[in-house]
Amino acid sequence: MKMFHKIYFGDSVVKLTEEMVKSLENEIVFIATASKDGVPNVAAMRAIKVLDAEKGIVLIADNFMNKTLKNILENPKVALTTANCKDMPYQYKGTAEYYKEGEYLKIAEEVDKALKPDLKPKGAVVIKITEIYNLKSGPDAGKLIAKDE
What we know:
The chain has a single domain (4-135), classed as Electron Transport, Fmn-binding Protein, Chain A (Pnp Oxidase, Chain A, Roll), CATH 2.30.110.10. Helix content is 23%, strand content 37%.
């Protein structure tokens, strides 16, 4: 099985700060997806782990994904933001891959167990964050903070 975070060699411009990691792992995160026809969907997620802050790799356990998963399989481009935009005003954009077995599923199981021991993930969505934008209101709203080439 190919490991997503091993696909991206070299230095990543998109690095997650300690504050970003804490926010992503401890807040409700909204994931935006779109079907191949461009029909949008937004869903709230809770079972999240940052796998590699230096390379911008994030895992989300698939516990109840329906439209979100269908969209990711059709169109892997996603956007994330936390419910706490006041303190952590960032939008993260990236590319997602889905795993139903292997190392990532095991990590998703650990994430679920820490949240709610009776949860059992169906799979794991692994996202390589490629862009980070400022969401704080003011003159820099929407400004690109970091982007991988």
